[in-house]
Amino acid sequence: MNFVQIIDKKSKGLELNKEEINFFVSNYTEGNIPDYQASALLMAIKLKGITDHELVLYTRALIESGEIFPLNNELVDKHSTGGIGDKTSITLLPILAAMGLKIFKMSGRGLGFTGGTIDKLESVKGFNVNLTIDEVNDMVNDIGLSITGQTPKLVPADGKIYALRDITATVDSPALIAASIISKKIASGAKNILIDLKVGTGAFVNNVEDAKELARLMKLIAADWDRNLFVLISSMSQPLGNNVGNKNEVHEAIEALKGTWPEDFYALIKKISVELYSKSKNVSIEEAEKVFKDAVESGDALNKQKEWFAKHGVKNFDEDTQFTPAHKELFKSEKSGYVSFKDVKSFGNYLIELKAGRKVKGDKLDFDAGIRFFAKTGDKIEVGETLFEVTSSKPISENLVHNISKEITINDTKQEFNIIVDEVTW
């Protein structure tokens, strides 16, 4: 097959057939197609789009490029499209396990301005994120949950194609995004999958219309593989929770299970947990809410979290998850009023400057680096009260703290905030 002709065909907006799509995916994965030709096709897809039929065929080719776990009706999965302060998995997984569900999650490192769950967990001494598939299976069967970094055995084609998209300005194609996310969920074997699709200034998707189109594409793929998919559209117009960084987010995720919940974080965790339990166990939302409340308030979820961390290699849970940064700088409000946020994405960029995120692959992270917000959207603050705190293992620039303050506004009128924006149901 002549790959130049395939590029030319798609550049004219014509539909590729199954053989042409499979040829591209298999040969690029095996190294038979050079990057410059593959990137030309990806750009043609971004600019000309692909049909629903092409998307289904393309995603199937990605999935079949590696191992596929058999469909497991007992297994659930959740994926977030990422944002500022998104430590959801660290709290959610032990809650789901305490509720009687099973979940195995593949997570990644930070990407661009967003933090990665794997980076956060590696901030805890001893936490091993590099598990084999057999180790993951054993842990899920034993305690109901496990997490690991991305493995080359599952959907290797997506791993290679995504790396190319990241450096060729082809990340922001809705079809390619949908295929990349759902291919890994399907290969992992879960029957019921929930996607937490972030929308706002701190997310990759800016508006609800684009989010709903992305949700449609995801559900199209899931249906082709007989998977149940729920898409929750949640707001990233403010950081999630009160802490952003790495180890400070882990600490906040643990403190939540001890009873100290940021309001937005609790609402999001509850919604995800209840939807997955209700669908998986075929019970009402009301019954699922009771099970959720019992798992959290009884301490079962916290105990499951401790058991989970120990299984991953953490020796002393209470000591190793404490957050005691070497340096702190407070910023006190210069006026009274109600808090709101400007460009939430900017906090991710400041975290990169603090070394809580990476500028280039391989950058060493400062796990002490982070920001703690003492007031969120709609909160009333008085002049002189602490608005936020910056932490680091090294001395902190006053100029950096001042620049961060410019992304928070104090208004005379209260701005309302709801974490749940919309949903595309099962």
Characterization of this structure:
The chain is α/β, with parallel strands linked by helices. It folds into 3 domains: 3-49, Transferase, Pyrimidine Nucleoside Phosphorylase, Chain A, domain 3 (Up-down Bundle); 72-318, Pyrimidine Nucleoside Phosphorylase, Chain A, domain 2; 327-411, Alpha-Beta Complex (Aldehyde Oxidoreductase, domain 3). The protein has helices spanning 3-11, 18-29, 35-48, 52-63, 88-98, 117-122, 133-143, 156-166, 174-187, 208-224, 247-257, 263-281, 285-297, 300-311, 317-320, 345-353, 398-405, and strands spanning 72-80, 102-107, 145-149, 190-199, 228-235, 243-245, 327-332, 337-341, 370-373, 380-381, 386-392, 408-411, 420-424. Helix 9 (174-187) packs across helix 10 and helix 12 (263-281) crosses helix 13 (285-297).
Strand content: 15-25%
Number of strands: 13
* Biggest sheet statistics: 6 strands, mixed
Write the element-wise H/E pattern from the N-terminal end onward: HHHHEHEHHEHHEHEEHHHHHEEHEEEHEE
Give the CATH class of the largest domain: Alpha Beta
Q: How many DSSP H or I helices?
A: 17
Percent of residues in helical segments? 40-55%
Radius of gyration: 22 Å
Number of domains: 3
Widest β-sheet, arrangement of strands: 3-2-1-4-5-13
CATH superfamily of the largest domain, called what?
Nucleoside phosphorylase/phosphoribosyltransferase catalytic domain
Query: Would you identify the CATH architecture of the largest domain?
Result: 3-Layer(aba) Sandwich
Low-confidence stretches: none
What name is given to the CATH topology of the largest domain? Pyrimidine Nucleoside Phosphorylase, Chain A, domain 2
The average pLDDT is: 93
Quaternary organisation? single chain
Termini, distance in Å?
40 Å
